[in-house]
Amino acid sequence: MRAVQRGLREGGAMAAARDPPEVSLREATQRKLRRFTELRGKLVAPGEFWDIVAITAADEKQELAYNHQLSEKLKRKELPLGVQYHVFVDPAGAKIGNGGSTLCALQHLEKLYGDKWNSFLILLIHSGGYSQRLPNASALGKIFTALPLGNPIYQMLELKLAMYIDFPLHMNPGILVTCADDIELYSTGEFEFIRFDKPGFTALAHPSTLTIGTTHGVFVLDPFDDLKHRDLEYRSCHRFLHKPSIEKMYQFNAVCRPGTFCQPDFAGGDIADLEVDSDYVYTDSLFYMDHKSAKMLLAFYEKIGTLSCEIDAYGDFLQALGPGATVEYTRNTSNVVKEGSELVEMRQRIFHLLKGTSLNVVVLNNSKFYHIGTTEEYLFYFTSDNSLKSELGLQSITFSIFPDIPECSCKTSCIIQSILDSRCSVAPGSVVEYSRLGPDVSVGENCIISGSYILTKAALPAHSFVCSLSLKMNRCLKYSTMAFGVQDNLKKSVKTLSDIKLLQFFGVCFLSCLDVWNLKVTEELFSGNKTCLSLWTARIFPVCSSLSDSVTTSLKMLNAVKNKSAFSLNSYKLLSIEEMLIYKDVEDMITYREQIFLEISLKSNLI
């Protein structure tokens, strides 16, 4: 699992006189949630909250989907009012990465507000990806992923706003940059607050294992004089390393050794077996840049005109900062999806632009970082992980109609805004969201069911992923349901038709699946780039006239593969997931969710 929770326990005699770190963390998190609940649907006072909340989108389709959902949230008073909510779309053409999206967002702000944004507190949330590793977030966006929490239910947007509730009160004008699919929890002590008031850049840092450091940014901090670690520390940073090897962490003195001040407590997840006295590093999550730094980046972007390569807001901005920064990283393309000479040149220009700018670090020793961007992480945190459940108050059944789920020490199922017949069964480890399931439906373990409607008898095999989309095709409303295994790699691609045998669908050779479905191997089997063939671009999902037929048909193709029995798809119009997102009907999908919401409200006597 990519990034899991990370925390460091304060040591010494002082620890005995105060709450245990996990208690402090839970209480701090619950206070933030209560404060945000007070602000939902209320007009916020100047300086009390963000002036602007901006979300990035990859294309115009995504922009429309995000704006539609923001509009609905504001109508239902699920967000604080008196705030400017914007969606900023990347320019058409080459992918520009979250760094390019940041530059583009600055330009949007300048066009909308002129010099006025000099005095604004701005939250910028990057949500421009297509969520290929968690496809139930692909159609409506990662930032609108539903959580088993709240009434009305929280989505990632509300949780971000809640966890950052204290930031605007202690922040100079500038921009806080974060991503849509992670959660940062922290405790700073009763009378301390995180302040973003220094010139240049300021980043949050979390104690982490060296293994986690290899997939994140790692801070090389200047020496620290204090004899004890506190929950909150303001540190200066010598340099920033992006996804370094463990060897490089040691080489550049990024590794902290236990025993000098305190010992790290890495609890839970895939780091549960780590020795208590292990070495650790400080890794990144979000960062702030003051208005002067933002204006410098904007002037640079307007000078270059058009970006033709992907820029990383963390790897390409933060690595240029601090007195120890060197230009060598600009030529390291090992973590880059698409290489090119223009990328190296652009990185070098950014380095020389930002060199000399300070990088301040807010060390959060009692903090945890959760990444929920893959099916594996999504299922683990919503059904199995007791830590996040305790800290956020996650529920097994959230705003749904379904009999109580027996709690067990290992894992439960998770039902979010859904209507399930009392006779249907959902096995532990599975998540059902925005769906209706009839009496003869059984869901196996570790499944994800999203936006679906199943009334007829159906058995969903363990580890199934089923997500339905409304489509607008030739002005007609249609439906298609993507169905595969939760562990399938939709991003894995091959360059030629002869190599598609290397792809796997539900753990089965994709070539064998095509035989089961009576589909021929031709270029027409795939949408988009014909030299990048993947499950994401495979035209294998039937288009139907009703939502229930769509789910039933896709389940038949799934079970045909599991049971090795033929089910011909020849008579259906077939789409790839890539094409579903092009044809998606956002309004109908949101209407379906609203119908479920109203029915639950009526039956629960909440209206």
TrEMBL record:
InterPro entries listed in its UniProt record: Fucose-1-phosphate_GuaTrfase (IPR012120), GDP_fucose_pyrophosphorylase (IPR012887), Trimer_LpxA-like_sf (IPR011004)
Q: Does the keyword Nucleotide-binding apply?
A: yes
Q: Which domain of life does the UniProt lineage start with?
A: Eukaryota
Annotated keywords: Nucleotide-binding, Transferase
Q: Which Pfam families match?
A: Fucose_pyrophosphorylase
Q: Which residues cross the membrane?
A: none
Any GO MF annotation of the entry = fucose-1-phosphate guanylyltransferase activity
Region of interest (Disordered), ranges: 1-24
Q: Which GO terms describe its biological process?
A: GDP-L-fucose salvage; L-fucose metabolic process
Q: Which residues form the GDP-fucose pyrophosphorylase domain?
A: 114-545
Name the UniProt record assigns to this protein: Fucose-1-phosphate guanylyltransferase
Q: Which gene encodes it?
A: FPGT
